[in-house]
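dude i think i finally got it to work??
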Amino acid sequence: MFDAYKKRIYINRRLDELKAQARANLESELGQDLRKRRSTEVESAFGNVKNNFGIRRFTLKGMPGATLEWGLHSIAHNLRKLALLAVYRGGLFFIPLDTELQYM
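look at this
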């Protein structure tokens, strides 16, 4: 009667190894530096798109559609940053195509 209630526990040794490796990577000096930079570099873009653009879900289906949609949101995010930069600097400066650029 109690045989039906027996449970088996499986231990995935490979998963445990990968978790230990990930923990070691995160606790290393390089991992700590990357984690510090992530909050300012990556998550601000996601937060801006989610909060300011009001994007909570992808409307296109599948990974190709979601990739395309995220690319468009990224372009809009970067164009907005350029527009704000132009406002703060007093306008955009365009260089004509026939102008020869000189590098220092």
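The CA atoms of residues 58 and 70 lie 8 Å apart.
im so relieved honestly
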